[in-house]
Amino acid sequence: MTAPVRQAATVLLLRDGAAGLEVYLLRRTQGMPFAGGMSAYPGGGVDERDGGTDLAWVGPPPADWAAAFGCDERLARELVCAAVRETFEEAGVLLAGPADGSGVVPDVSGDDWEEQRQALLARDLSLAELLAGRGLALRADLLRPFAHWITPPPERRRYDTKFFAALLPAGQEARDVSGEADEAVWTTPAAALQEHAAGSRPMLPPTIHTLGQLAPFPDAATALTGSPPAPLEPISPTFEQTPEGHYAVLPDGTRIRMVVPLPS
Fold first, then answer.
1. Which of 42, 94, 96, 152 has its CA 20 to 30 A from that of 82?
2. Backbone dihedral angles phi then psi of residue 2, each to the nearest 5 degrees
3. Opening angle at CA 203, ends 200 and 207, nearest 5
4. pLDDT digits (tens, 9 = 90+) for 171-189
5. What are the residues whose beta carbons fall under 8 Å from the beta carbon of 264, sequence distance 6 or more?
6. Are 73 and 63 in contact (CB under 8 A)?
7. Which of 67, 71, 209, 105 minimizes the C-alpha distance to 147?
8. 179 phi and psi angles, rounded to 5 deg
9. Do residues 36 and 28 make contact, with C-beta atoms less than 8 angstroms apart?
10. 3-state secondary structure (DSSP) of residue 86
11. 81-138: pLDDT as tens digits
12. pTM above 0.90, yes or no
């Protein structure tokens, strides 16, 4: 029987470092039921309260995101909210600011913020409630649509994942606050891909491929300039095993070598 597909959002959090464009990666703990030991971006499944309309919103409306991802407006709203919520939950970075769009909240590292981050994780607090309580708006304008991947049918856990890109807000720091990770690093896409090729940083095909898409950009501003064609073409790979190793094969024929075999 084919596993149900869960909607999810993930965020390529970017900054400029000494060696150029850097991206934030979390290594999921070995005991995780999905992608244990793999490096990935902050992200996760859509929560039922992510679609609430009672929150202030700055930036492209849900209709624009629906066009980018080829979905309806309700799901588009849920995905944007999930992207912002998951980035705060897993990296301690909040893409929010005053409702007039005049800036981004500069620091979310205090004890009061941590208490609310934990409440989000426990689902005792929704993103809309957190923002309303602080007089803040979700900053959809800080996100960019980047990619769309769907786990293929043979897998036991399947996700329809929309990938966003965002610049680390000035004054905020990504922090290793996720209980689901045992490592959090800023790295250049090229360095992460080299580690993967050497076998020291296992990653799933969407992470490998999107790092390859980022690698040519010299800085974060260039990576975030413009938008890909709308709607983004969803990618659902197939897998093959050869004497040379395990590969994910994309619809366009691109083959991505896997460091370890995918779970059967």
1. 152
2. -70, 135
3. 135
4. 999 988 867 678 899 999 9
5. none
6. yes
7. 209
8. -75, -5
9. yes
10. helix
11. 999 999 999 999 999 999 998 899 999 989 999 999 999 999 999 999 999 999 999 9
12. yes
Query: Token pair for residue 186?
Result: 């800023």
3-state DSSP helix/strand/coil percent for the chain, to nearest 5?
30, 30, 45
Give the strand pairing for 43-45 and 5-17.
Answer: antiparallel
Asked if residues 107 and 27 have their Cβ atoms less than 8 Å apart, the reply is no
Q: Which two tokens stand for residue 135?
A: 């007089």
Length of the chain, in residues: 264
DSSP-derived secondary structure for 186-219:
EE-HHHHHHHHHHTSS-B-HHHHHHHHHHTT-SS
Q: How many CA atoms lie within 13 A of 12 on its CB side?
A: 29
Of 121, 209, 128, which is closest to residue 163 (Cα–Cα)? 209
Q: In a 10 Å sphere around its CB, with 0-12 CB exposed, 13-18 middle and 19+ buried, how is residue 214 labelled?
A: buried
CB 163 within 8 A of CB 190: no
**Average pLDDT over all residues of the chain:** 90
pLDDT higher than 70, residue 23: yes
Identify whether 206 is preceded by a cis peptide bond (ω within 30 of 0): no
Whether domain 5-217+231-258 has CATH 3.90.79.10: the reply is: yes
Pull the structure tokens for residue 127: 């993103």
Is the pLDDT at 1 greater than 80? The verdict is no
Cβ neighbours of residue 124 closer than 8 Å, sequence gap 6 or more? none
pLDDT at position 195 over 50: yes
Hunting for tokens 């991206």 — which residue is that?
Answer: 23
- 111: enclosing H helix or E strand: helix 111-121
